[in-house]
UniProtKB/TrEMBL annotation:
<dbReference type="InterPro" id="IPR050546">
    <property type="entry name" value="Glycosyl_Hydrlase_16"/>
</dbReference>
<comment type="similarity">
    <text>Belongs to the glycosyl hydrolase 16 family.</text>
</comment>
<protein>
    <submittedName>
        <fullName>Hydrolase</fullName>
    </submittedName>
</protein>
<dbReference type="Pfam" id="PF00652">
    <property type="entry name" value="Ricin_B_lectin"/>
</dbReference>
<dbReference type="InterPro" id="IPR035992">
    <property type="entry name" value="Ricin_B-like_lectins"/>
</dbReference>
<keyword id="KW-0732">Signal</keyword>
<feature type="signal peptide">
    <location>
        <begin position="1"/>
        <end position="26"/>
    </location>
</feature>
<dbReference type="GO" id="GO:0004553">
    <property type="term" value="F:hydrolase activity, hydrolyzing O-glycosyl compounds"/>
</dbReference>
<dbReference type="InterPro" id="IPR000772">
    <property type="entry name" value="Ricin_B_lectin"/>
</dbReference>
<dbReference type="Pfam" id="PF00722">
    <property type="entry name" value="Glyco_hydro_16"/>
</dbReference>
<feature type="domain" description="GH16">
    <location>
        <begin position="10"/>
        <end position="272"/>
    </location>
</feature>
<dbReference type="GO" id="GO:0005975">
    <property type="term" value="P:carbohydrate metabolic process"/>
</dbReference>
<dbReference type="InterPro" id="IPR000757">
    <property type="entry name" value="Beta-glucanase-like"/>
</dbReference>
<dbReference type="InterPro" id="IPR013320">
    <property type="entry name" value="ConA-like_dom_sf"/>
</dbReference>
<keyword id="KW-0378">Hydrolase</keyword>
């Protein structure tokens, strides 16, 4: 939503996944933040959760509205919803970049109250509909230094396309009109509530409408540009009036227009939880599995990445002393080393710190003795990539999940 230019051209072909063939949504992690908008009619949104952007400077898009913190523009309806209202009015002689403002609206954000790295982010919304009206539910990376800090647009819609919503990302080299995104065509989104969702993992972002996947990106989608989606982002909701992309109100535009929000929820990234008795894979970069090389049980056998194959060499269980075990032996840091780049191997279980691992909610697997993360050497996902310990840095090479 925030960009130097508007998303005038999206990667459209082949992005809509029909419901019959759409991959099923995985279960999310634990709920980490939510607002159900329960409260008295006319009351303001919870100030412990939401703040406001205020002003009429065009917001980089030649928008025409002045954003306020008035309950005329953002208030609960008493029925469990937040209503953001765009109006044709100027009750306080607001000044905009083009002169005296013609419209007011609201832009709410969780900057300073909530941010998160990875997870599921979703809202159940009923969208407005009229020429020049532009609702959005989106995220910005912190600290904000756009486009380097990144942007994830969970849902955007423009009034002249009542049956289409868009999901897009922006970053260095793919900002503004070069944003990488997809569109989903469905019912007229102003006629009923719909759920708009992104699942954000270290190596992918996936968009859904009502549980139907319609777009997915990975670092390879960026054509060599930098993947900047490995740090905290905060949430934003707004209704803009006019701008380069949606166009401007005309004689057909009906105001006021409302974005009605039933809930906004955030969940932790689903790493699949701790390893369970009976064995399970540990999946990392490139959707490759943590593997014991050649299924060899000799002490010192490398632990590596390999294409998942369901064999015992990729079946890991939790053992005593916080160990991770496969083929009857333990995942071990070679020579009990603590330096960056120390290889990980299979070794007889001995209860030492070199074999103790802490599995964290964000997907890190941390060696207790060194306080360093299990890491794919060289950030490679090639079969045979050696696993090592490295200072924890939040990159995809250090993120692991249990399917």
């Amino acid at each position: 939503m925030r960009r130097a230019l508007l998303v005038l051209a999206l990667v459209a072909a082949g992005l809509v996944v029909p419901a019959a063939s759409s991959p099923a949504m995985a279960a999310p992690g634990a709920l980490t933040w939510s607002d159900e908008f329960n409260g008295a009619a006319g009351s303001a949104p919870d100030p412990s959760k939401w703040r406001y952007d205020i002003g009429g400077g065009g917001w980089g898009n030649n928008e025409q509205q002045y954003y306020t913190n008035s309950t005329r523009n953002a208030a609960l309806d008493g029925a469990g919803n937040l209503v953001i209202t765009a109006r044709r009015e100027n009750p306080n002689n607001y000044q905009c970049h083009y002169g005296t403002c013609q419209y007011t609206s609201a832009r709410l954000l969780t900057s300073g109250t909530f941010q998160q790295t990875y997870g599921r982010f979703e809202a159940r919304m009923k969208l407005p509909y009229s020429q020049g009206i532009w609702p959005a539910f989106w995220m910005l990376g912190t600290p904000v230094n756009w486009p380097t800090s990144g942007e994830i647009d969970i849902m955007e819609n423009i009034g002249r396309e009542p049956n289409t919503v868009h999901g897009t990302v922006h970053g260095p080299g793919y900002s503004g009109a070069g944003g990488i995104g997809g569109g989903y065509s469905g019912p007229r989104f102003s006629d009923a509530f719909h759920v708009f969702t992104v699942d954000w993992a270290p190596d992918s972002i996936t968009w859904y409408v009502d549980g139907i996947q319609y777009f997915r990106i990975t670092p390879a989608s960026l054509n060599g540009n930098q993947w900047v989606f490995n740090h905290p982002f905060f949430l934003i909701m707004n209704v803009a009036v006019g701008g380069y992309w949606p166009g401007y109100p005309d004689g057909s535009t009906v105001l006021p227009q409302t974005l009605t929000v039933d809930y906004v929820r955030a969940y932790a990234w689903n790493t699949g939880g701790n390893p369970q008795p009976g064995g399970n894979t540990i999946v990392g970069l490139g959707n490759k599995c943590v593997d014991v090389a050649s299924a060899n049980t000799a002490n010192g056998t490398p632990v590596q990445l390999w294409t998942c194959n369901g064999t015992a060499a990729q079946s890991w269980t939790s053992g005593a002393n916080a160990s991770l075990r496969a083929l009857g032996k333990c995942m071990d840091v070679t020579a009990a080393g603590t330096a960056d780049g120390t290889p990980v191997q299979l070794y007889d279980c001995n209860g030492t710190g070199a074999q103790q691992w802490r599995i964290e909610a964000a997907g890190d697997i941390v060696n207790v003795s060194s306080n360093k993360c299990l890491d794919a050497r060289g950030a490679s996902s090639a079969d045979g990539t050696r696993l090592q310990i490295w200072t924890c840095n939040g990159t995809a090479a250090q993120k692991w999940r249990r399917p």
